[in-house]
TrEMBL record:
Top-level taxon of the source organism: Bacteria
UniProt xrefs under InterPro entries: GmrSD_N (IPR004919)
Domain GmrSD restriction endonucleases N-terminal per the UniProt entry, residue ranges: 14-259
Protein known as: GmrSD restriction endonucleases N-terminal domain-containing protein
Source species: Dyella marensis
Length: 641
């Protein structure tokens, strides 16, 4: 059995801070800047002054597989270039930086108030309050401005002046910057309070030294030390578990730190700088409408991008293994999970980054072709990853009509099969391998062959966030639906210019007055894409009433002939006669039938007539996942495609 790759030992606080000062203990480059505010620093000082625990630290020994670019603890001096650290601080940056800044650094601390106002502070311990057993220790920790003078009345009245050592002695205010070296300060203090008449004050300082200062000197911190054999994935997982005080670490930050050790600025690639727009900026600008902040692929994350690259790299490794004669389970898996990202070499990233970026741009064009224009209307953000990877892989072949039709069919099967809601790493890798084979004459991908859409599912699709709900809306626009009022089809220009969204056909107010429950009238069957102005005209009246209003017209809207208006309705798969008769039940049954036919054409699959689960439940789980005994949402699954 393998032994543990970590050990826990107590270390003297002073030694840890000295290691920070000389560069033996540094931070990995992914660590964020020091951000603690003045009150949290005071609380930390108070805890150490009472020998209360402040939590364990976690370090990683350098020289192993995980090769992060190091950087010094904020404020530590840099001598003769960057010193190679013995270990990196994974957890405890804020605590160690705060203690280093207030004790050893010897300079004013730049921090913020609880309201995030930037300030500069020296910290002191009020000796009298610190010795008072009834006083709150945090009230004994004082922060003063850079000139060491506290003022009130907009700076006109001096409350406390600590601008010289003699004033510190007189006020019995001990500088936190001297907690590890009190002899010199005590010598001056004793001279200031010399004479028998001040013996009680000198005794108070001796008590303070014993009760407070020695707590700093002998304070020991538990440190969990990960040895150099710790894997990249373990570092990532462990960091996420222990880093509860801030934003969880993701794989992109770890990869950024590893690439930085080789001189590559991954963060600059993604975010850009003042001189050049990064990849994220380019994605946001891709097909961005004039009145929007970003386009359809503006929500692609940096880990999405790395995931797509890892698919190419792991497939390359698999092909090399095949050429070497390996078969079956001996072949490396094609994966896009976190482990794959952490194992992605810089050379592979550089090899595939441009190709994959172009794949995402092509994915944006593909989605626009399907009348999916906003991130809000995107059925599955996760499905963009395999879509972009596939398009990047097939290149110009994606422009051929037969391939395009297959890709459209694959996409809608993923949406209406609701297959991208869980176990997405497995699904992504599988589709990346199977779809290109299908385009090249191979068998149907499992996303197509496994899709089941139940006929009653339409009745339960009520939530705006449902992937299938959004899919029906896009299919209607793609089918040529025309706005009831203007008669315009919902292309890109009309969609944004007319503020198009999904609205009720039988209005909510009318449904409520007629005793129809929200679970029924809120179904996608009773909804369709319409412009904001058209929805205002519809209001809350019966369909027969608002159709008559549209036919009559008014000062703002010309009259619409009945036959033309009926053609608009039919473009939404609505039977005009049933709508004019205000026959809600017949309308729902007829439109359900027509929408099912629309979905069947899109997926190439007949709807299943069995029972449907309630919305929000997974309709299908991957067979591979179920057979493995693992949870379908385990993001560490891999697939050997």
């Amino acid at each position: 059995m393998a032994g543990s790759t970590f050990q826990t030992n107590p270390y003297d606080l002073l030694k840890l801070l000295e290691d920070c000062h000389r560069g033996a203990l540094q931070l990995p480059d992914f660590q964020r800047n020091w951000v603690w505010d003045e009150d949290r620093i005071k609380g930390l000082i108070a805890s150490v002054s009472r020998a209360f625990p402040v939590g364990a630290l976690m370090t990683l020994d350098t020289g192993g597989e995980v090769n992060f670019k190091p950087r010094s603890v904020e404020g530590a001096p840099v001598k003769d270039g960057l010193t190679s650290p013995q270990s990196l601080l994974l957890d405890g940056q804020q605590r160690m930086t705060s203690l280093y800044q207030v004790t050893l650094r010897g300079k004013v601390v730049e921090t913020v108030t609880p309201k995030n106002k930037k300030v500069k502070r020296w910290f002191y311990i009020d000796i009298r309050k610190a010795l008072d057993p009834l006083a709150d220790r945090e009230e004994a920790i004082i922060g003063v401005p850079e000139d060491r003078v506290q003022r009130t009345d907009f700076g006109r009245e001096v409350v406390r002046d600590l601008s010289s050592s003699d004033r510190e002695y007189a006020e019995l205010m001990y500088p936190v910057a001297s907690v590890f070296d009190w002899d010199r300060w005590q010598d001056g203090f004793d001279r200031h309070w010399r004479g028998d008449e001040h013996e009680d004050i000198r005794q108070a300082f001796r008590d303070f030294k014993r009760q407070v200062l020695e707590n700093f000197k002998y304070y020991r911190v538990p440190v969990i030390s990960l040895d150099r054999s710790t894997s990249k994935e373990a570092v990532c997982v462990v960091f996420e578990k222990v880093n509860t005080g801030g934003k969880p670490l993701d794989a992109f930050e770890l990869v950024t730190a590893m690439y930085a050790a080789d001189g590559h600025e991954l963060r600059k690639d993604w975010y850009g700088d003042e001189a050049q727009k990064g990849r994220l900026g380019r994605f946001k600008e891709t097909l961005r409408p004039a009145d929007s902040e970003f386009g359809i692929i503006g929500g692609v994350s940096n880990t999405d991008f790395l995931q797509a690259i890892s698919l190419f790299y792991t497939r390359e490794l698999r092909r090399q293994a095949e050429q070497a004669g390996r078969t079956g389970k001996d072949l490396p898996a094609v994966i896009g999970n976190r482990q794959a990202l952490l194992s992605l070499p810089l050379a592979a990233y550089k090899k595939y980054e441009k190709q994959v970026e172009q794949g995402f741009v092509q994915a944006a064009k593909f989605l626009h072709m399907l009348h999916i224009y906003r991130i809000f209307d995107l059925p599955y953000q996760s499905q963009i990853v395999p879509l972009a990877a596939i398009l990047a892989d097939i290149g110009d072949a994606g422009e051929h009509e037969s391939n395009r039709l297959k890709l459209v069919r694959w996409y809608w099967n993923g949406v209406f099969g609701e297959l991208y809601g869980s176990a997405v790493e497995t699904r992504i890798a599988r589709d990346f391998m199977e779809v290109p084979r299908w385009l090249d004459g191979g068998p149907e991908p499992s996303t197509v062959s496994e899709t089941i859409f139940r006929s009653d599912r339409l009745k339960t699709m009520r939530m705006r966030l449902s992937a299938a709900y959004k899919g029906v809306n896009a299919l209607l626009m793609g089918e040529g639906a025309q706005d009831f009022r203007s008669g315009q089809k919902f292309d890109h220009t009309v969609f944004f210019g007319e503020n198009v969204d999904i609205h009720h056909i039988f209005p909510q107010d009318w449904c409520k007055k007629n005793g129809i429950k929200p679970a029924i009238y809120d179904s996608i069957i009773n909804k369709t894409p319409l412009s904001f102005r058209t929805n205002r005209i519809i209001g809350g009246v019966a369909p027969s009433a608002y159709l008559s209003r549209l036919e009559r017209g008014d000062k703002a809207t010309p009259a619409i002939p009945e036959e033309r208006l009926d053609s608009y309705l039919r473009s939404h798969l609505i039977d005009p006669l049933l709508l004019r008769m205000d026959d809600f039940d017949a309308f729902m049954a007829d439109r359900q039938r027509q929408l099912l036919s629309l979905i069947e054409r899109a997926t190439g699959k007949l709807a299943y007539t069995g029972e449907v689960q309630e919305e929000g439940e997974d309709l299908e789980a991957d067979e591979d996942v179920l057979e493995s005994g693992l949870s379908p949402i385990d993001d560490r699954l891999i697939v050997a495609a």
